[in-house]
Backbone:
C-alpha cells in the first residue's frame, strides 16, 4: 500500500490520480500520521465500495463501543440493569 502526504496530494495530484487505479488504495498522511484513504472506484463498483466502507466503519464503531464498555466496567450489566438505565434516561429526557 502506498502512503502519500497531503503536500504530495496537493502538488502531484495528477500523478496520484493516474497511479490510483494500479495501487487500488493509498493512505494520505499529515505530519506522518494517516488521515485518509483514497480508493479507486468506478461506476460499476461505486455502490458496493461505499457499502463495504460504511460496513467497515460500523464494525469499527461497535468495536470501539465494546472497548469503552469493558474499560468502564459496563460490559457485565444484566439485561434488567440495561433496561433500568434506558428507562432512567428516557424519564430524565421528558423533564
Residues:
Amino acid at each position: 500500500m502506498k502512503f502519500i502526504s497531503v503536500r504530495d496530494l496537493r502538488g502531484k495530484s495528477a500523478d496520484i490520480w493516474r497511479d490510483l487505479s494500479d495501487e487500488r488504495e493509498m493512505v494520505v498522511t499529515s505530519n506522518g500520521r494517516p488521515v485518509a484513504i483514497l480508493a479507486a472506484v468506478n461506476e460499476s463498483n461505486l455502490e458496493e465500495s461505499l457499502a463495504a466502507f460504511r460496513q467497515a466503519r460500523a464494525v469499527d464503531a461497535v468495536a470501539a463501543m465494546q472497548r469503552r464498555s469493558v474499560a468502564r466496567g459496563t460490559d457485565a450489566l444484566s439485561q434488567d440493569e440495561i433496561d433500568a438505565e434506558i428507562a432512567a434516561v428516557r424519564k430524565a429526557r421528558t423533564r
About this structure: The chain has two domains: 1-40, 51-95. The radius of gyration is 21 Å. Residues 6 and 30 are 6 Å apart (CA to CA).
